Amino acid sequence: MKKKKIKHNKYLRNIDVELDLHGLTKEEAREEVLDFLDEANNNGDKKVRIITGKGLHSENNKGILKEYVQSILDEKCLEYCDAKICEGGGGAINVKLK
Fold first, then answer.
1. How far apart are CA 34 and CA 53, in angstroms?
2. What would the pLDDT profile of 42-92 be if each residue is shown by its tens digit?
């Protein structure tokens, strides 16, 4: 039996810290996100992840936090993208801090 060579993903992003927003309302999430970003900046973190969830347990199975958090990140002029599938996919956002 041949041994499979393990390939390391050279594009995998190293995340300094993450915030999980599962179960929060928009108002609660806003406060948490703003505090989280301020603290991450103060700690010198460069890449962070915000877990919004996919909305699978929400009404109509549609999440409300992802777009809302993205609007907050847009207000802050921060770069962000969906996390890779192995990092949470569409239920998480990777953010690059300044």
1. 18
2. 999 999 999 998 866 666 666 789 999 999 999 999 999 999 888 888 899
Do 73 and 51 meet the contact criterion of CB atoms below 8 Å apart?
Answer: no
Q: What is the pTM of this model?
A: 0.81
Cβ proximity of 19 and 51 under 8 Å? yes
Q: Which domains does the chain have, with CATH numbers?
A: 17-96 (3.30.1370.110)
